[in-house]
Specification:
heterodimer; A: 386 residues; alpha/beta; Rossmann fold; Fumarate Reductase Iron-sulfur Protein, Chain B, domain 2; 4-stranded mixed sheet; B: alpha/beta; 4-stranded parallel sheet; binds iron/sulfur cluster
């Protein structure tokens, strides 16, 4: 058996039953998912208004907020904030990957570390991620041991997983303490308060948002929700459908750190970051939102559940889609952000994805639409399916 | 590792064939209609095969040539000569006759269009040629109108799916119904089978419980596993990817067959494409339900 087959079968057999169990034990999750879908649609129906409101709310909190159209604009702004010769820690952000932020910052002469364990492993291996929430699932435990032996030492192919994690933990703790800038994505952003929600298990995102003096959050405009109450739902739904419920940490950030301990007068900063920056990203999303079928893809909350039910992903997953986007959601998102219609061509409309998607996205229909666009010269590849 | 075929070229060839022969490949129409003996020609209720059971066993042969589109073009005119083997055709014909018999036992005497029966256009829809599919749907709807057809009984998931989607492209009042909605089992069967669901029947067309009901009433015990035959977990056979990338299609079939083998060495399918795609990989016996419970 190929190593991908072994790795993906292990992951499927672990993940799929876990999600069923979570949904059985916490029946309110499905209700929350419905509410989340409605709230996200409300934003997509009035996107400009909510982008404006979000930018203003972040500024009201003493943060900085930007709206960028593409990769180049995003890199420019991040580059200006970070500068050169700095240590940067990154919480797992697909949008940062999409925009080439790490590579760009490295090219400016910064030391940049991925701090999510999976992301750290693929950074070390110099490989693209293979799953949106478990980027290193193509690696077996044995291959991780081998990689860490080469890069950090202290463990090998036969070590226990706990010992492998400990080696990385020790290495990265030092980086967190020394880091000048922390960069994260966002699971949800509340338009009315400018708050950013992040869900995680490792504690690396919490470190990234609090330890360095500067926190930058980069997120697609589709992550906006009307209110903080709506935004708070997202981490619960996302983690449940990822089979990781309850999540170990949910982080809420509204501007730079603050205190009102003296005369109840709120001043900034306190112990956490002095600066907070939110970068809202278009990069194809606004155009997709104008297309009634494609818009559905913008509802995706990146839970990664569709991957584990998809026969194509299971067969060829780690090379299907434009990194960091993979699986059924990745076939949609490769088109949205890169104009690449090729991954969609691989949809065999098995339909499992639409059955399990918490946002009820009819993924095969979206992919059928992208196929049609691609076959009629709308895609980047212009029919060159050779 | 994977290599997508030149789909736009393939699309052009399919459209060209459909315009000429009402079939995606230039098939001898007698191959399609040879199963029907004494069905009346036409009428307002017809059984509609779209030549799927009949021709599907020979399609694999074309797929092998798709990666080099030029040899595919050369091969097309020869396609009339390339037809399923006698035993493959006998099997397909038996299935179709069993279905008709089951319909008749339920009091339905369908007509049939014989060599005038057109293909449904499913392959265009499934490959993503929506515009071409829409145009073709218009033609087929008017052809059915000309023939006075009002009710169409489909016998496979791909055709049923394609027909139920015509309305998105052309207004019509044809009634589309699948044979599984009309028949009862006609044979008592004993023993254990596992089942490979059709993706389209199961997750798009709401027929999963219909055929499972028939199977279980017939006396068959289905061997199931929530991770392999559940509604959300039972995977595709890989067949629809054949024209796109045969290697990936085969890899999916191999994965699927391996999972199913764990449950039983006897496998039921409900779709001619699943049968053909899984057959080379499944170590055991595969049968269409129409060979078993009717
Ligand atoms: S498409 Fe649906 S199931 Fe797939 S990652 Fe997005 S929200 Fe999850």
């Amino acid at each position: 058996m190929l190593s991908w087959d072994i790795a993906v079968n292990r992951a499927i057999n672990n993940a799929v039953p876990k999600v069923y169990k979570v949904l059985r034990e916490h029946p309110y999750i499905e209700e929350l998912a419905k509410r989340l879908r409605e709230a996200k649609l409300e934003v997509l129906n009035n996107l400009e208004k909510y982008v404006e409101e979000t930018l203003q709310s972040v500024k009201n909190n003493g943060g900085n907020a930007y709206y960028v159209h593409d990769e180049k604009e995003a890199q420019e702004i991040v580059g200006k904030i970070v500068g050169k010769g700095k240590i940067v820690v990154m919480g797992k952000s697909m949008v940062a990957y999409e925009l080439g932020i790490r590579k760009y910052l490295e090219s400016l002469g910064n030391e940049v570390w991925e701090t999510d364990l999976g992301e750290f492993l693929i950074q070390q291996a110099n490989e693209p991620p293979s799953h949106i929430i478990a980027p290193a699932i193509h690696m077996t435990k044995e291959s991780v041991g081998k990689l860490l032996k080469e890069k950090l030492g202290g463990v090998d192919e036969n070590s226990k997983v706990e010992d492998m994690v400990a080696v990385v933990r020790k290495f990265l703790r030092d980086k967190f303490v020394k880091a000048d800038v922390g960069i994260t994505g966002a699971n949800a952003i509340a338009a009315d308060t400018g708050s950013v929600l992040l869900v995680e298990n490792e504690g690396n995102i919490r470190f990234t948002t609090v330890a360095p003096q500067i926190h930058i959050a980069i997120a697609g405009v589709e992550k906006i929700l009307p209110t903080l109450a709506d935004a708070m739902i997202e981490p619960l739904v996302q983690s449940a459908y990822a089979g990781l419920y309850p999540p170990t940490y949910v982080n809420l950030t509204s501007g730079p750190s603050s205190t009102a301990d003296i005369e109840h007068n709120r001043v900034r900063p306190a112990h956490g970051p002095k600066e907070f920056h939110l970068i809202l990203v278009d990069n194809g999303r606004v155009k997709a939102n104008k297309d009634n079928v494609l818009r559905e893809a913008l509802l995706c909350i990146r839970c990664g559940r569709c991957h584990f039910h998809c026969p194509i992903y299971r067969a060829i997953g780690n090379i299907w889609g434009d990194p960091p986007y993979s699986g059924p959601m990745g076939a949609m998102w490769s088109y949205i952000v890169k104009g690449d219609t090729k991954p969609a061509m691989y949809c065999a409309h098995s339909g499992n994805c639409k059955e399990v998607c918490p946002m009820r996205i009819n993924i095969p229909r979206v992919l059928e639409h992208i196929k049609n666009l691609g076959l009629h010269s709308q895609g980047k590849d212009k029919l060159d399916y050779k | 590792m994977y290599h997508v075929n030149n789909l736009s070229e393939i699309g052009k060839i399919l459209v060209d064939n459909l315009n000429r022969y009402y079939m995606p490949f230039p098939v001898d129409k007698k191959v399609c209609s040879g199963w029907a003996k004494d069905l009346h020609r036409g009428g307002d209720t017809i059984i509609y095969t779209s030549c799927m059971y009949q021709i599907e066993p020979a399609v694999g042969m074309f797929l092998k040539f798709l990666p080099s589109i030029s040899s595919f073009k050369v091969l097309m005119p020869l396609a009339r000569l390339v037809k399923p083997s006698k035993s493959q055709l006998d099997r397909a014909y038996k299935i179709l006759n069993n279905i008709v018999e089951a319909l008749e036992k339920s009091g339905i005497k369908p007509g049939y269009l014989y060599e005038e029966e057109p293909y449904s256009g499913a392959i265009l829809l499934e490959m993503g040629f929506l515009e071409e599919f829409g145009e073709y749907a218009k033609k087929i709807v008017s052809l059915f109108r000309e023939k006075g057809v009002k009710k169409i009984i489909t016998v496979d998931p791909h055709t049923h799916n394609a027909l139920t989607r015509y309305q998105e492209f052309v207004k019509h009042d044809l009634e589309i119904v699948n044979y599984l909605e009309l028949v009862n089992y006609t044979k008592k069967v004993e023993g254990e089978f596992t089942i490979h669901d059709s993706c389209l029947y199961s997750r798009f067309l709401g027929l999963r419980e219909k055929y499972r009901g028939l199977i279980e009433k017939s006396g068959i015990k289905l061997v199931e596993d929530e991770m392999i035959t559940g509604k959300d977990t039972s995977s595709c056979c890989g067949g629809p990817l054949g024209p796109v990338d045969l290697k990936v299609s085969e890899k999916i079939a191999e994965n699927r067959a391996k999972d199913l083998e764990k449950l039983s060495k006897r496998l039921l399918v409900v779709c001619p494409i699943c049968y053909v795609t899984l057959s080379p990989h499944f170590k055991g016996e595969i049968m269409d339900i129409a060979e078993v419970i009717f």
